[in-house]
Every structure is written in C-alpha cells, then in structure tokens.
Amino acid sequence: MFGWLAARSIPLCRRAPRALASRRIRPITPHAWLDLLPALGSVLYLHTRSTAVMGDVFPSGMLVSHRAFAPLLEARWLVAVCVVTDDGPREWCECVDHLGRTRARWHLLPDSDYLAWDALTASCQADTDMLARIDAQPLRPDHACVVNFRVRHLAGLDVLEHDTAVALSPLGDHLAARIAHAEAVLLAS
C-alpha cells in the first residue's frame, strides 16, 4: 500500500490549492497571439478533444490549421500560473474566453524560449476579482501535445499552425511526460 502511494505523483498542475499557486491575469486579443506564440518555441499544449463545442465568432483575418488551436481565437484573458510541485517549479498559461471558461493551456518546458515567455507574461497582474470569476470553470484537458506555434500568411489571412519538426531535449521530453501524467491526459507523439 505504501509503495503505491509513494509511486503516485501528486497532480498539482490542475488541482493545486490556490494558496500555493501564483496566478496573474491580463486581457489579450487573438491578434496578439500572432506575435507572441511563435516566439515561445516548444511548449506543452493541453486542450479538449476536437469534438468540443466551438464558438461562432472568430476574429477577422485569422484561421487555425487544427481544430485544437481554435480555443486560442476565443481567448480574451491570459492567466499566468506558477507553482512548485514535487517535480520542481512549473509555469503555464491559460486562455480564458469572454464567459470565463478556460479554453486551453500551455506549459513552459526547458526547451521553451524563456525571454519570450517573460515577454508574454510580463504585463499580467494579480486581479483577484477577475481570477475569482475564472476559477469557477477550470480546464479539463483530455489531450496534450508538444508544439512549436508558427504563423503563415495565406491569401490575406494569418493562419496559426504548428511546426511539425519538434525536437525536445531528454529533460524536456521527460518533463512533458510528467506534466501529461499529472494532468491524466494522453501525450501525443
């Protein structure tokens, strides 16, 4: 019995007590993603399956190459989260729509660009009122993948897609697997 308990990781990513996690928020537009996401490098992207309900209103001039990225077009708030787990410190960002629903999340990996991460989260503030409304509907991911976002211009549209050549270091690969395990989701290869 003790061996089973000792071998189980504590899934703090999704279920971390709010007192242990540092949470900051900022408003963001989908067009801001075009400048910020590609600079991040390799990140672990978590989302619900493609059969999830998608919104009707998307920003003009923008498309996504995969249905899994559609939640990024609905995001109106960016929540930056930092927490210390059994595996060490973890940082991730959550996209929240206008209804306060968390639509997607991506985790910082050792292979990510830390300067781009700091630029993305630098203007996030501790706004307890907005954070209280967002906490009511956390993300329940059921799929995870490591992505390098990129933007391609196609027929006057900006298309958000991912680079198919993602190479992680052994540490980055191990950490992505640990986070996916803690979130109880399948990590796509």
Description:
This protein has 189 residues and is α+β, with helices and mostly antiparallel strands. It has one domain (11-188). Helices cover 26% and strands 35% of the residues. It has seven helices and nine strands; from the N terminus they run H-H-E-H-E-E-H-E-E-E-H-H-E-E-H-E. Strands 1, 2, 3, 4, 5, 6, 7, 8 and 9 form a nine-stranded mixed β-sheet that branches. The radius of gyration is 16 Å and the shape is globular. Residues 1-12 have low confidence and may be disordered.
What's the gist of this structure?
By secondary structure, this protein is an alpha+beta fold.
Query: What would the average pLDDT be, to the nearest integer?
Result: 80
N-end to C-end Cα span:
33 Å
The count of domains is: 1
Silhouette: globular
Task: Please trace the helix and strand order, writing H or E for each element.
Answer: HHEHEEHEEEHHEEHE
User: Low-confidence parts, pLDDT < 50 over ≥5 residues?
Assistant: 1-12
Structural class, please?
alpha+beta
Q: What is the percent of helical residues?
A: 25-40%
Strand element count: 9
Strand content: 25-35%
Number of helices: 7
In angstroms, what is the radius of gyration? 16 Å
Largest β sheet strand count, sense and barrel closure? 9 strands, mixed
Protein name: Hemin transport protein
Organism: Dyella monticola
